[in-house]
Each structure stands twice: as C-alpha cells, then as structure tokens.
Write a structure and sequence with these properties.
alpha+beta; 6-stranded antiparallel sheet; about 30% helix; minor pseudopilin epsh fold
Length: about 160
C-alpha cells in the first residue's frame, strides 16, 4: 500500500450488536408468543360483538318489516327468524337472511363460550323486546348485553 491511501474499513455488524439484537428478539418472543397462542379473549370479544350486532339487526328489522323478529338461543348458535303474519305471538316461521345474501342469519357459538341465560325473546313491530327487559350474558365477559324495555336499544 502506498503511504497516501488508508485501509478500507470492514463493513458489517459487530458481535456486540448481534448479541444485543438476539437478546431483544428473545425478550419480545417470550412476551408476545404466549399472547398469540391463547386467543380466548379475542374469540370471546368477537362472539360478543357478533351477538350484539345480530340483536341490533333483529331490532331494526322488526321496525322495518313491522313484524315480530324472534331471537332464538339454540344449542351452539343464535338464530334470527320472523313472524310473517300480523298476529302477535304467532310462530316465527320465516328465516332471516344475512343482508344481501340468501344464507340464514346465524351466529355460531365458539367452543368454551356459553350464553347465560339462554332465553328466547322477540322484538315486536315497534322494536321493543318481549319479554322485557332482556339481558344476555356471556361466560368470561364482565359486561352483559342489555336490551332496553321501552326502546329496544341494544347496549353493553
């Protein structure tokens, strides 16, 4: 080498940098990985939101159709149907479909979750629940879903 030239510097990571990076990745993996493996809280929240959306849809559909819409808590699912006649209290024999589809509006209950109590009820043509008021609780959830007696408003 000539006297006027400097040696080129080696590029790359030092051992200290690599060790620090591996330690940080290890700590993050130890904290984050168990959260991704146990998704019970996510499943409960998703089911809670689906049931609440189904109840809101049933209430709005009852007002729009001016017919009774039944909410049935069956083993393993929550199903919506409506009373095609104008006679109050008649059987809800017509299936409610998902909006814009021909599939029935059914919310499947995930494993390990139960509805408490599982009492069937219906919204009348004014959107009021019968019997009223209605409270739907899910196991593992602190907040139950409540349907107000006079307005039929679905809240938590």
């Amino acid at each position: 080498m000539s006297a006027g030239r400097c040696r080129p510097r080696a590029t790359g990571f030092t051992t200290v940098e690599l060790v620090v990076t591996l330690v940080i990745v290890g700590i993050l993996a130890a904290i984050a990985l168990p959260r991704f493996q146990d998704n019970t809280a996510f499943t409960q929240r998703g089911f809670y939101d689906e049931v609440k959306a189904a109840l809101r849809y049933a209430q709005k559909l009852a007002i729009a159709k001016r017919r009774e819409v039944c909410v049935d808590f069956l083993p393993g699912q929550v199903a919506l149907s409506f009373n095609p006649s104008l006679v109050a209290g008649a059987a809800c024999s017509s299936t409610v479909n998902l909006p814009g589809q021909s599939t029935p509006y059914v919310v499947n209950v995930p494993a390990g979750i139960a509805l408490v109590p599982s009492a069937n009820f219906r919204f009348n043509g004014l959107g009021q629940p019968t019997p009223a008021p209605v409270t739907v609780a899910l196991t593992g959830r602190a907040l139950p879903i409540t349907v107000a007696a006079e307005t039929g408003h679905v809240s938590n």
